[in-house]
Automatic annotation (TrEMBL):
Protein name listed in UniProt: Transglycosylase SLT domain-containing protein
Domain Transglycosylase SLT span(s) in chain numbering: 185-279
CDD domains the record matches: Slt35-like
UniProt cross-references to Gene3D superfamilies, sorted A to Z: 1.10.530.10
GO biological process: peptidoglycan catabolic process
TM region(s), chain numbering: none
GO molecular function: peptidoglycan lytic transglycosylase activity
């Protein structure tokens, strides 16, 4: 794994504001990229006889994307880059879930780099609607639908962001293992009847699955960003900083606010913004359609929006 920025220690960033960590439970919103197409390496085929036929190149797996390479601006190249990235990401996800152990340790490097490339492409498309529309037309139908959901969600969340120009201090750390979180989500669903995919989408939007550990400027705390008064009412005596306690409290609050009968009403109670509600439901829909999208989102990183552009606080 390449040296990362995600460490359990305070980080000071100049001119930054959180990009997608939105203060939940009626808190005020917090302030919430580019990459070349995947390259293919080739090598000569080995000789098989004393008088071998002409050598032919052997096609290998595409090289992993550079985490800071520019995003293609041309819709055709951008569509190819996204198509290759998503296909490679799905293969990497299958390898991790079948041969690795998402319940322990950190994800492998291919997952991290490919998910980051996917995230950066969607962030770019969210800021460039005309390019996005032309890119959708060049994507396979299924991928075009996925791209529209992710880009629309990113655009909704970015609409809540107010870039800041000043100094801000953020505490970030690695998240709990993906399958540990998955167990917590499913337990909360069994206890309160709130779909685990919705809970996962809320945590993803709020703190990128617990990577952001700083309180919001309004005072929301913990991995699910609870305001103190809301935590007192729905936290059931738990620790607002504890991941399992926070997820149970979120399920408790959403259930009391209308879920699962009316998720829009419940999520609006969690955060008074229709853009927030739309983004959470779009991400939840993607997770429902393919659980591999949960593992991809798990590997998306924390970005900040500044008056001088985006900065990435976690990841490679």
């Amino acid at each position: 794994m390449r040296a990362g920025r995600s460490r359990a220690r305070p980080m000071v960033a100049s001119l930054v504001g959180l990009t997608v960590a939105i203060s939940g439970c009626a808190g005020a919103q917090s302030a919430a990229s580019s990459g070349a197409p995947l390259q293919t390496a080739t090598q000569p085929a080995p000789e098989r006889s004393a008088t071998p036929p002409a050598k032919e190149p052997v096609r290998q797996a595409p090289a992993l994307p550079d985490p800071d390479a520019p995003i293609p601006k041309d819709p055709a190249r951008l569509a190819r880059s996204l198509t290759d990235t998503v296909a490679a990401l799905r293969r990497a996800t299958d390898d991790w879930t079948r041969k690795g152990d998402p319940a322990k340790g950190q994800p492998p490097e291919p997952m991290v780099l490919l998910a980051l490339q996917q995230q950066r492409i969607y962030r770019y498309l969210a800021r460039n609607p005309q390019v996005a529309s032309r890119t959708y037309a060049k994507l396979p139908k299924a991928l075009a639908g996925q791209a529209k959901d992710n880009v629309t969600a990113a655009r909704d969340l970015l609409s809540l962001v107010h870039p800041i120009s000043g100094s801000a201090k953020f505490r970030v750390q690695p998240p709990k293992p993906a399958d540990v979180l998955l167990d917590h989500f499913r337990y909360a669903e069994r206890r309160f009847g709130v779909e685990w995919e919705v809970l996962a989408a809320v945590m993803f939007v709020e703190t990128k699955f617990g990577r952001v550990r700083s309180p919001s400027y309004t005072g929301a705390q913990g991995p699910m960003q609870f305001m103190p008064g809301t935590w007192k009412a729905y936290g059931m005596g738990g620790d607002v900083q504890d991941t399992r306690d926070a997820l149970l409290a979120a399920a408790n609050y959403l259930h009391a606010s209308g879920a699962p009968r009316d998720y829009r009403r419940a999520l609006y109670a969690y955060n008074h913004s229709q853009a927030y509600v739309n983004a959470v439901l779009l991400h939840a829909r993607q997770i429902k359609q393919d659980i591999r999208n949960y593992y991809a989102y798990y590997n998306w990183q924390v970005f900040v929006v500044t008056t001088r552009g985006d900065r990435r606080l976690t990841g490679p």
